[in-house]
Amino acid sequence: MAFEATKREWSELYAFFRLLSDGYVYAGTPDAKKNENLCWPVAMVQREEHDGTRQYIIENEEIHIVGENIDKRIPREDFATVASLVLDAVKGSKEMDVTSPDGVEEFLDEVAIFDLEAKTDDRTDFYVAFYNVNTPLVGFCVRSKLSPMFPLLDGGRTANFKFEQTGVKFATPTVNKINAFGEEDDVIGRMLMIERLGGNLKFNDAADKVFRSNLGMIDLHFPRVLGEMCRTMHLEGITRVNELVEIIKQTNPLKIKDELITKHRYYEHKMKEFLLALALGMRPAKLYNGTDSAVAGFLMVDGAGEVICYQKADRQTFADFLYNNTRLEKGPTAKDKYGYLEKENGLYYFKLNLKIGLVKR
Question: Fewest Cβ atoms nearer than 10 Å: which of 159, 194, 217, 299?
């Protein structure tokens, strides 16, 4: 009997099956392509199910499945066949929910897979042992261009930045008029209206104290950099992180020396460190002390179904990939509580929200 699952769920399962059927995975390049000169042999994939941990060991032409309630061998070519069926179904559907292709449900029953998304508490999708089964396991998250991707940073209201409204002192009716302007998500309209009426928005700080401290681990002044990037994103319509950093280099909000900007590439370096911290575990509302989480890399599924690997063992490539392939996104204003003038201790503040996602193209 057929069942439905989201493209994201199918993509995770597809990447899992491809690793087992191929027995290797190519490294990715900074521009999200396959590095033809570097691939890692896969010896085992470890995955969590509702009834415990399963290990899928690659043994020549078979996959040896070992778990608390299972010990069996399945031909590797079966995993390749099902991976192709899943890929074709996902690529061929315009809907977010995709019906299981013929034969796939029976195969999942045979290999005792009941959870299409692995049940973990550490944000990993599964672990991989490279070279041989005794090497340390590496925790991965799957990101797929065939489906909507989880944001790299989706902190909600804890990822807001405060801008103090200065210049003209607005009366309460004027504030109400500004806040009532346009549609709910017309943040730029309200920003421009404040400017037309003689007001300015001066960066203040990160709104949440935990997020402020976490950003301080990157740089004590890093909240200002991100706040100005958010402002530029709204006013200029530029979303790519690397393009926004180029603008920040020109405006130089931290007023640092030109040598730091051009020779040391200060702003690029700080942004890459921040993106890596996000990929490896930093969250806005959770205290960050520089320790990485169990997630040690991404497995990217591209639009053609190619799976490529980024891991912190190749830190520079991972950082460059994130820098070149991320963008600022706009979250819902009502949910994330930003885009309006709010009074606090006698002063008015305007909040902007930081949300970072991976680009689809």
Answer: 217
Closest CA to 43 of 51, 55, 28: 55
319 phi and psi angles, rounded to 5 deg: -65, -45
Q: How confident is the model at residue 1 (pLDDT cuts 50, 70, 90)?
A: low
CB 268 within 8 A of CB 208: no
Q: What is the 3-state secondary structure (H, E, C) of the chain?
A: CCCEEEHHHHHHHHHHHHHHHHCEEEEECCCCCEEEEEEEEEEEEEEEECCEEEEEEEECCEEEEEECCEEEEEEHHHHHHHHHHHHHHHHHCCCCEEECCCCHHHHHHHCCCCCCCCCCCCCCCEEEEECCCCCCCEEEEEEECCCCCCCCEECHHHHEEEEEEEECCCCHHHHHHHHCCCCCCCHHHHHHHHHHCCEEEEEEEECCHHHHHHHHCCCCCHHHHHHHHHHHHHHHCCCEHHHHHHHHHHHCCCCCCHHHHHCCCHHHHHHHHHHHHHHCCCECCECCCCCCCCEEEEEEECCCCCEEEEEHHHHHHHHHHHHHCEEECCCCHHHHCCCCEEEECCEEEEEEECEEEECCC
For the entire predicted model, the pTM comes to 0.94
CA nearest to 153, candidates 333, 283, 314, 29: 283
Residue 74 has pLDDT above 90, yes or no: yes
Q: How far is CA 88 from CA 10, 11, 15, 172, in A?
A: 11, 11, 13, 58
pLDDT of residue 359: 94
CB-count burial class (<10 Å; 0-12, 13-18, 19+) for 318: buried
How far, in Å, CA of 155 to CA of 157, rounded?
6
Is residue 350 within 8 Å of 201, Cβ to Cβ? yes
> pLDDT value at position 280?
94
Instruction: Read off the pLDDT of residues 312-345 as tens digits, 9 standing for 90 and up.
Output: 999 999 999 999 999 999 999 999 999 999 999 9
